[in-house]
Amino acid sequence: MNSKLNDEKIDFLFKGILTLESVDECYSFFEDLCTVAELQEMSKRLLAAKMLKDNHIYTDIAAKTGLSTATISRVNRCLKYGSDGYITVLERLDRK
C-alpha cells in the first residue's frame, strides 16, 4: 500500500466506492463527487492504460484520447513501475 495515500478519509472514500453495485450507481455517485472534466480525464487515463497495454503508440493514444504525451508517459510509468492498479483493473475487465 502506498503510504503517501494511506489516510482514513481516503479509506472512507474507497469503502464508499466499494459499496456501489452497478454502473448506474457509479454514474450517480461520481456525478455528485466529481466534475465532468475530472471524470472525463480519469476515463481517458484508463483508456490510455488499456491502449498502452495493447501496444499502441503514443501518437495514436493522444489522437484517440486527447491526452498530452506527458500524461500518456505518466500513465505508462504507472503501468511499468506503479502500484499495479491499472493492471488489476484492466485484467479484471478483460475477464468480463
Oligomer: single chain
Count the E strands: 0
Coarse shape: globular
Broad structural category: mainly alpha
Largest sheet: none
Question: Average pLDDT, to the nearest integer?
Answer: 95
Strand content: under 5%
N-to-C SSE string, H for helix and E for strand: HHHHHH
Instruction: List the uncertain runs.
Output: none
Fraction in helix: over 70%
* Termini separation: 26 Å
Radius of gyration: 15 Å
Number of distinct helices: 6
Q: What's the layout of helices and strands?
A:
Layout: H1 8-18, H2 23-33, H3 36-53, H4 58-65, H5 69-81, H6 85-95
Helix pairs in contact: 3-4, 3-5
Give your account of this protein's structure.
With 96 residues, the chain is mostly helical. It contains six helices and no strands. It starts with 7 loop residues before the first helix and ends with a helix. 9% of the residues are buried.
A few lines on this structure:
This protein has 96 residues and is mostly helical. The protein has helices at residues 8-18, 23-33, 36-53, 58-65, 69-81, 85-95. The radius of gyration is 15 Å and the shape is globular.
